[in-house]
Specification:
α4 packs antiparallel against α5 and α13 packs across α14. The N and C termini lie far apart (about 50 Å). β1 and β2 form a beta hairpin. The protein has a two-stranded antiparallel sheet. The protein has about 500 residues and is mainly alpha-helical. The chain contains 20 helices and two strands. The mean pLDDT is about 80.
Length: about 500
């Protein structure tokens, strides 16, 4: 990329090629969406538990039930989107414009402390989240459903997948800055915890959703002629033709069986600062540093994801490499940091190197998932005559939220099993009692933090081995679809002429 400005703002376009300026807008839209989603998915559990003081097991129950509902309604939303009538080139784009501001407002409301009782707070959060979730599902399916419609060429879709994954990852990284910002607002600016979270919701939640509206600029290039009216039931039945979708969904569900708590519980619960080569860092700052430094190589090499996949033999092999490297590196890192040795700067650097190594292929997994799923929609169209962007990507959203729900249920009961008690705001004898009660938590926090994800990675790896990834077959599918679409267009022209 000799001239980044010229590259990103290029308007060069064809029937298969996506103009880079539109691709940039699409990627920026995914950045905004993931800033917002990262904030609510990563911070709501902690906000309810530590700011509204809802007990950990009830917090796990609230977020688990909410996320489970979130997952269940996605397939229905996807089927309705596939079944609705639409003008050519506008199957998904209008949905992005109408839903984004509403989602941002609901996000801000969920992080506002209405000074209610615990029971009333639980009820209000559940109602707000259920409304938020239905509208977010529509927007999310529309955002990601644009990917398979972006080009009839699988190679070009892989390029689009790479860049929008970079955009989405950037959004996640920006969302991950909140713990450090919260620490500055609370510890240095004197802002209360509840106000810090509300400001975060306004900037990250609402602001991210406004930015996501840029995705509307992406064009729907697949020249798809609907052969017949599609019912909700027809859309659901099409799932049986999509073997790729079924295997990826199952692998991700099994991969979510990870006994790992949110990072806040590892870095910010003991009230101590971390010594990093002479610098004393707060728990929130250390959390950001830990996520940022090892992630830099993976973030940079994500720009080469499609080439990397070609070098290792395809998207399936990329997924296998990601899980094998993560399992091996986490086990080695566990022994390096065991018995609180992770607090030693030298040991921490060695752990960072290992995390950086597996983060490279792991960071490319989403590119592989989305590229393979976009190709699978072409295969379904060839078999059934129907395109299924709605149900395919709503199933992906369903799985993402189901995985999140599984994680939240597990997290709530891990905290209960380890007898965790929040120590923020305590002092004197109350603090001493809470610290004593937390001794099992501190004894095993490194185990769950580093080894917990190994269980899910192993289950994911076994499942993904059954996936097929045949590039020659995909080239044949594209050729047959081109001929089929041309025949349908000609027949429509002939009918119109009569």
């Amino acid at each position: 990329m000799k001239n980044p400005v010229k590259f990103f703002f290029s308007r060069e376009e064809s029937d298969t090629k996506v103009a880079n300026n539109r691709l940039l807008s699409y990627a920026a839209g995914l950045t905004g969406q993931n800033i917002s989603y990262n904030f609510i998915s990563q911070r709501l559990f902690v906000f309810l538990n530590t700011v509204l003081n809802i007990p950990a097991e009830k917090t796990g129950l609230i977020t688990g039930i909410s996320t489970l509902w979130d997952a269940i309604n996605d397939p229905l939303v996807g089927t309705l989107i596939d079944a609705r009538k639409f003008k050519p080139g506008n199957k998904l784009r209008p949905l992005i414009i109408y839903t984004s501001p509403i989602i941002g407002i609901l996000t801000a409301l969920m992080f506002f402390n209405f000074q209610l009782s615990v029971t009333a707070s639980i009820f209000l959060i559940l109602v707000l989240y259920l409304v938020y979730d239905i509208i977010y599902s529509v927007q999310d399916v529309a955002m990601w459903g644009l990917l398979p419609l972006s080009s009839p060429s699988s190679k070009e879709r892989a390029r689009v997948s790479q860049w929008v994954t970079i955009g989405a990852g950037l959004g996640g990284s920006i969302g991950g800055l909140f713990p450090s910002i919260r620490s500055i607002l609370v510890d240095k600016a004197g802002i209360t915890e509840q106000n810090a979270y509300f400001l975060g919701a306004l900037c990250f939640g609402f602001g991210g959703m406004i930015l996501s509206m840029l995705a509307y600029r992406m064009r729907e290039k697949v020249n798809y002629v609907q052969e017949k009216k599609v019912s909700v039931w027809d859309s659901l039945k099409s799932l049986k033709y999509n073997r790729t979708l079924i295997i990826i969904c199952l692998a991700r569900i099994l991969g979510s069986v990870s006994f790992m708590l949110p990072w806040e519980y590892f870095f910010e619960t003991d009230g101590v600062s971390y010594n990093l080569f002479g610098m004393n860092l707060s728990g929130g700052t250390m959390q950001v540093v830990y996520g940022l430094i090892p992630g830099i190589p993976g973030a940079l090499l994500l720009f080469c994801a499609t080439r990397f996949a070609e070098k290792v033999g395809g998207m399936k092999r990329l997924l296998i490499l990601a899980e094998v490297s993560q399992i091996i590196c986490r086990i080695i890192a566990f022994f390096i940091g065991a018995n609180d040795r992770f607090l030693n700067p030298g040991n921490l650097v060695a752990i960072w190197v290992l995390v950086a190594l597996y983060s490279i292929p792991v960071g490319m997994k989403d590119v592989a998932h989305r590229s393979l799923l976009s190709d699978s929609i072409d295969e379904v169209e060839l078999k059934t005559g129907e395109r299924t962007e709605g149900i395919t990507f709503s199933m992906q959203n369903f799985v993402s939220k189901l995985c999140n729900a599984i994680s939240k249920f597990i997290q709530g009961y891990i905290l209960k099993f380890l007898r965790f008690e929040n120590i923020k705001g305590l002092d004197g004898s109350a603090l001493i009692r809470a610290q004593s009660k937390n001794s099992p938590f501190f004894r095993y926090r490194w185990h769950q933090f580093m080894l917990g994800p190994v269980i899910g990675s192993s289950l994911y790896l076994i499942t993904i081995l059954f996936l097929k990834d045949d590039r020659a077959h995909m080239a044949e599918v594209e050729l047959l679809l081109k001929e089929k679409r041309s025949e349908l267009e000609n027949s429509e022209v002939a009918v119109a002429a009569e």
